Each structure stands twice: as structure tokens, then as C-alpha cells.
């Protein structure tokens, strides 16, 4: 939806408005983030959007005629997802053409769940200026959130008291990661109001919220019986196989998240060497650590905690299946997943971000797909047909029989070249195809090469190694940010 240029012109004319901030700066990210945060908090309770206008003088409202580039608009849009403004506000970014010149405009909708923070601080509009919220401002915003909070994790856990919280985990493990040290130093509030400001305590009922119990509870299952992860390893390819190993990850998430991270890295990943050439090996894994962990974090973040059923983390000979109770939520549905996301547990989602277990929102599934493809696992399979549950399948990295036979032939060719290094090297058909793709796109990634050639990661690595060894290509820069430099042609 286009931003109404008449509204923008009116706000430029009214230089005392608390719904607009004007600036001629194009790279002051902190200033932009603070303004977006203040508009989202809507302390005056206008119920109308606020506008950050870039390219107009703050004192006069006069448009100065900036060149509004696509890069500027992309940088402004990235403020929403860079993790510094939390929870994420609803906003749109556009170039608006006015009679006196162009401006870049960020339209920010008032959040139904304030307070919104930028780098741990709450910013609000105070007349025509912005500032950090005081205690009374924050109380008003918290009351506004409580009056509209609908998510289960934000509801009060009425049977619980402050004694049911592991206070040391909150004070020493979570708070220092949620707020800068100088903010904590100046915070004189008691523990209940500190927890309330983060959604972990409800002062109206003098009890922790469900999120408080889930994150820091001494005995989580006493209040939420299904709040644990059940891991089972079956022998074979079905649940009828013998159980080789099982484990129950139970307790508060401040402890369980780190246990899961270590477990995936040491037990599930299964690093092993494979030959790349006669003289070289490459370490590959059955299941990439980051991708598997991300799928588990998604199940923790999006499950329904009022269910008595745990998250099922089942491992078979050929795959991993992760199932959580609670299907797609809110705006997400089978037609738009995974491009559209919504949060069933907004407070827990924010807590996972604070602790570093999720990064930028709305990118997790895409990165999981890339990591699995690069490792040879293939695409993750999402089962959206279960209604009240959500299941994802992660296949074990493997090669099909055709690839295995081709690799055997490649090994034989490599052995011959090693025995007779003076013999002329000629590219096989798979090598020619890969080389052609590298020539066409010097920035092409392993994931894209795998998509276009339908080859496994390990086989593709062998082909790339052969091209490097015979001087056809050189890799410049890192695996993620570098590019391919072509040194030979097919006729050389």
C-alpha cells in the first residue's frame, strides 16, 4: 500500500507534530532505530502511524532534494529485522515524490504489544521530540500491552509465585544479555517490575507469566506438563525398530537450550571424513549442526505450551523427524509458508533472540534449506497436513547409486593421473557442466550448484578440487562471501 503523499506534505508543514521526525541524515542508523521504536510505542495513544522522513530539514520541514537510492531504502527496511528493534514493529519503507523533491519515508504502525525497545532501551515521543521512557511511561506501555495480550506465554501462571523462579538464572544469565550494562546499572526497580518489563511477570496477579515459568521455572512440568523435549533414536526406518537411545530434555529453557545445542553438536551431527581425492579428505556431517538446531528452536518457539504432549525429536537410520503440537499460527498458512511467519509465543521468541539461539527473524527456514542442500541432505520436508501439529523431516546426507558409481569412476581417473602426472587432463561431463556454471556466474554458491547439477555436496567438492588442482578455477575470499576466478578455458 502506497504512502499518502498528502499526509507527508501536511506533516512537513506542521513542524511541531509528534507523529513525524524529519532528518537530512542518510546513515544515522541509531537515530532511525530510536525514531521507529518511539513511533511503534505510540505513548500519546494516537492509534495512527508515525513517520520518519529522510530528506527534509528538521527545523523548517523544507525538502532538500536528496537522491533517494535503492540502497538507502534497503538499509531502512533492514532496521526492522536486524534484531535491535524488539519486538518487531509493523512498518513500510517507500520513496515519496513531492513537488520540492523526493524523500524516503518509513511509516510505522503503533504496536499492540508495547513496550518496543531499541538496543534494550524504550524510546517514546514527547511532543515534537523523542526520549528514553521514564518509569511512568513504561508503566503506561505495559498496561497497554497487558490489556491486549492474547498469546499464551504472556498469560499469568496463577498457581505460581516468585519462589517458583530460579532468580539467579534471570539476574545473572538473562538480564545482562537483554540490556546494556549502563542501563542495568541505572535500573532501580525491584525484581518483579524488571521481570514484568520483559513479559515474565504479571503484577496485576502478583505471579509469573507462563513465559517466566518456561524460561526460568524451578519445576516447569508442575505447571506445564508437556513442556519438554523427548529424544528417541530408533534402529531402522520406523517406530517399530528397536530403541537404541532415549533422553528427556526437561527443565527451564535457560538450561535446556544449551543442553540441546551441545547434544546436537556432539551426538547428532556425526562428523566423518570422506576422500576428496587420492591424497585429500573432507569432513562431512550427517546433519548440519546449525540447521538441525534451528529446526529444534523453531519447534520450541512455535509449539503450544498448553498441550500435555512434548516435542518429539525422533532419529531413524535415514532421517530425523521433529514434531511439535500446534500447527501454523496466525497469518501463516499452507499457501504462504515459509514466506510468511507469525509468532504463537512472542515473549519466548524474543527470549531466544536475546540468548542468541535465533538470529534475524524470517530468514531461518531459508538458511536451513541452504545449509541442508550444501551438506547433501536435500530440502527439509514440512508436513502441514496434521492440523494441530507441525512436523519437519531432515534427511540424512547421502548419495544415490548413480552418484556413487560416478564417483568410483572419478577415483579411478584420479588414481591414473597420480600414477602418470604428465598425462593430459580432460574434463568429464559432470566436470564440464560445473565449470560452465562457474564461468556463467562467478558468485554461484555450492547450494545453487547442487540445485542445478543434482549432485551431492561431497561429489561436487571432488569436482571443484579437480578444477582447482588443474588450474581451471581459483576461489577468492570466504566460502560464503567470496567468488570464483576462472584461470583457463576448455580449449587450453
Automatic annotation (TrEMBL):
<dbReference type="InterPro" id="IPR038461">
    <property type="entry name" value="Schlafen_AlbA_2_dom_sf"/>
</dbReference>
<dbReference type="InterPro" id="IPR011991">
    <property type="entry name" value="ArsR-like_HTH"/>
</dbReference>
<dbReference type="Pfam" id="PF04326">
    <property type="entry name" value="SLFN_AlbA_2"/>
</dbReference>
<dbReference type="Pfam" id="PF13749">
    <property type="entry name" value="HATPase_c_4"/>
</dbReference>
<dbReference type="InterPro" id="IPR036388">
    <property type="entry name" value="WH-like_DNA-bd_sf"/>
</dbReference>
<dbReference type="InterPro" id="IPR036390">
    <property type="entry name" value="WH_DNA-bd_sf"/>
</dbReference>
<feature type="compositionally biased region" description="Basic and acidic residues">
    <location>
        <begin position="397"/>
        <end position="419"/>
    </location>
</feature>
<protein>
    <submittedName>
        <fullName>MarR family transcriptional regulator</fullName>
    </submittedName>
</protein>
<dbReference type="Pfam" id="PF13412">
    <property type="entry name" value="HTH_24"/>
</dbReference>
<dbReference type="GO" id="GO:0006355">
    <property type="term" value="P:regulation of DNA-templated transcription"/>
</dbReference>
<feature type="domain" description="Schlafen AlbA-2">
    <location>
        <begin position="16"/>
        <end position="130"/>
    </location>
</feature>
<dbReference type="InterPro" id="IPR038475">
    <property type="entry name" value="RecG_C_sf"/>
</dbReference>
<dbReference type="InterPro" id="IPR007421">
    <property type="entry name" value="Schlafen_AlbA_2_dom"/>
</dbReference>
<feature type="region of interest" description="Disordered">
    <location>
        <begin position="397"/>
        <end position="427"/>
    </location>
</feature>
Amino acid at each position: 500500500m502506497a504512502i499518502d503523499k498528502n499526509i507527508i506534505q501536511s506533516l512537513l508543514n506542521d513542524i511541531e507534530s509528534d507523529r513525524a521526525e524529519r532528518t537530512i541524515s542518510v546513515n544515522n542508523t541509531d537515530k532511525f532505530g530510536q525514531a521507529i521504536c518511539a513511533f511503534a510505542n505510540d505513548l500519546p495513544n494516537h492509534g495512527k502511524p508515525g513517520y520518519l522522513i529522510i530528506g527534509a530539514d528538521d527545523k523548517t520541514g523544507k525538502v532538500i532534494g536528496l537522491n533517494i537510492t535503492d540502497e538507502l531504502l534497503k538499509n531502512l527496511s533492514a532496521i526492522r529485522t536486524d534484531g535491535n528493534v524488539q519486538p518487531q514493529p509493523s512498518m513500510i519503507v517507500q520513496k515519496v515524490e513531492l513537488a520540492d523533491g523526493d524523500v524516503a519515508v518509513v511509516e510505522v504502525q503503533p504496536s499492540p504489544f508495547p513496550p518496543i525497545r531499541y538496543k534494550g532501551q524504550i524510546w517514546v515521543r514527547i511532543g515534537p521530540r523523542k526520549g528514553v521512557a521514564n518509569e511512568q511511561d513504561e508503566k503506561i506501555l505495559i498496561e497497554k500491552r497487558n490489556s491486549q495480550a492474547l498469546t499464551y506465554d504472556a498469560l499469568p501462571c496463577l498457581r505460581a509465585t516468585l519462589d517458583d523462579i530460579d532468580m539467579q538464572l534471570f539476574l545473572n544469565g538473562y538480564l545482562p544479555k537483554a540490556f546494556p550494562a549502563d542501563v542495568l546499572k541505572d535500573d532501580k526497580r525491584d525484581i518483579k517490575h524488571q521481570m514484568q518489563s520483559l513479559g515474565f511477570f504479571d503484577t496485576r496477579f502478583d505471579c509469573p507469566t507462563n513465559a517466566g515459568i518456561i524460561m526460568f521455572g524451578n519445576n516447569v512440568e508442575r505447571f506445564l506438563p508437556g513442556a519438554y523435549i523427548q529424544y528417541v533414536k530408533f534402529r531402522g526406518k520406523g517406530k517399530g525398530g528397536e530403541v537404541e537411545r532415549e533422553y528427556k530434555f526437561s527443565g527451564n529453557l535457560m538450561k535446556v537450550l544449551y543442553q540441546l545445542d551441545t547434544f546436537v553438536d556432539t551426538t547428532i551431527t556425526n562428523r566423518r571424513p570422506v576422500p576428496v581425492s587420492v591424497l585429500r579428505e573432507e569432513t562431512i556431517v550427517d546433519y548440519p549442526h546449525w540447521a538441525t538446531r534451528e529446526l529444534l528452536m523453531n519447534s520450541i518457539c512455535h509449539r503450544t505450551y498448553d498441550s500435555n504432549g512434548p516435542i518429539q525429536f525422533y532419529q531413524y537410520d535415514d532421517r530425523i523427524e521433529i514434531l511439535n503440537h500446534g500447527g501454523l499460527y496466525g497469518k501463516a498458512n499452507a499457501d504462504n509458508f515459509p514466506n510468511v511467519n507469525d509468532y504463537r509465543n512472542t515473549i519466548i521468541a524474543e527470549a531466544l533472540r536475546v540468548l542468541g539461539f535465533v538470529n534475524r527473524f524470517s530468514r531461518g527456514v531459508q538458511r536451513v534449506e541452504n545449509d541442508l542442500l550444501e551438506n547433501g541432505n536435500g530440502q527439509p520436508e514440512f508436513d502441514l497436513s496434521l492440523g494441530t501439529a507441525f512436523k519437519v523431516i531432515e534427511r540424512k546426507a547421502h548419495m544415490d547409486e548413480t552418484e556413487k558409481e560416478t564417483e568410483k569412476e572419478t577415483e579411478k581417473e584420479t588414481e591414473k593421473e597420480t600414477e602418470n602426472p604428465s598425462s593430459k587432463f580432460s574434463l568429464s561431463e559432470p566436470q564440464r557442466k560445473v565449470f560452465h556454471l562457474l564461468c556463467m556466474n562467478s558468485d554461484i554458491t555450492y547450494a545453487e550448484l547442487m540445485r542445478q547439477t543434482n549432485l551431492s555436496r561431497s561429489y561436487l567438492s571432488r569436482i571443484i578440487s579437480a578444477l582447482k588442482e588443474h588450474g581451471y578455477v581459483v576461489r577468492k575470499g570466504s566460502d560464503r562471501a567470496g567468488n570464483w576466478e576462472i584461470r583457463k578455458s576448455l580449449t587450453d
